[in-house]
Amino acid sequence: MKAIIIGCSHMSAGLAINLQAKGHEVTIIDRQEDAFKKLPNVFHGQTIVGFGIDKKVLEAANIRMADAVITSTDNDETNALLARIAKNEYRVPRVIARIYDPRKADIYQSFGIQTISPIVWGIQRVTELLSYNQLDSVWVPENGNVEMIRIETPALLIGRPVSELRSVGEIKVVTISRGNKAFIPVSGTILEAHDVLYIVVVTSAISKLKAMLGLV
After folding, report:
1. Phi first, then psi: what are they for 22, rounded to 5°?
2. Strand order in the sheet with 114-116
3. What CATH topology corresponds to 132-213?
């Protein structure tokens, strides 16, 4: 995949390294040459000094061949405009705009622009860290026979395998959120402090789950 990142923020630098590590071709555009100092020495993609709104700069980055464009300048309106140019004029298949003001997300999405907001993510993550000491039901289907529960790993299960939180046909840990990443565990996955567990449980087995978690 060929990705173009417009705006060399700290987030952009980290994203560039992640994409590069996965074998993707990355080009970063920024109006300030000093911004590229955020990139570690291992970055070997292309850097271009210029304004992302300048079509000559975009075409120097070979935007017509890009598979993805991520706009990550320090201005929401600029990010939205650049995203619309990439999507509507250059027909880039995947376009993502970073926004600081989450209230603008619906407006941009109405233009067909996918957005991400570090502020929203941060609010959600802090809420998670403060809230998941007891069972927190996050999803219940219409028939109400099962629930998805989330909870931070209780102290008694730290260092234990996730298999200890399984009862065939009744209880299963389907996802673990650890740090900034979520993954699907296997039976031998070891639970760590501050893991947020997403557990699917049939309603009749909630008491059993509480016992497994040491909440009774």
Report:
1. -90, 5
2. 46-49, 25-30, 2-6, 68-71, 94-98, 114-116
3. Alpha-Beta Plaits (3.30.70)
Rounded distance, CA 6 to CA 4, Å? 6
Task: Please state, in angstroms and rounded to a whole number, the distance separating the CA atoms of residues 32 and 51.
Answer: 9
**pLDDT for residue 132:** 54
pTM for the model = 0.62
The whole-angstrom separation of Cα 211 and Cα 171 is 12
- Mean pLDDT for 165-169 is 93
Tokens for 165, please give them: 């939180």
| Sign of torsion over alpha carbons 157, 160, 166, 172 | positive
User: What whole-number percentage of the chain has pLDDT above 70?
Assistant: 93
| Rounded Cα–Cα distance for residues 202 and 167 (Å) | 10
Residue among 2, 53, 51, 64 at smallest CA distance from 27: 2
Q: Does domain 2-122 have CATH number 3.40.50.920?
A: no
Annotate 86-125 with b (16+ C-beta within 10 A) or e (fewer): bbeebebeebbbbbeeeebbeebeeeebebebeeeeeeee
Indicate the pLDDT class of residue 121, thresholds 50, 70 and 90. Answer: confident
Question: Could you tell me the residue ranges of all domains in the chain?
Answer: 2-122, 132-213
- Residue 20, token pair as written in the block: 């590069």
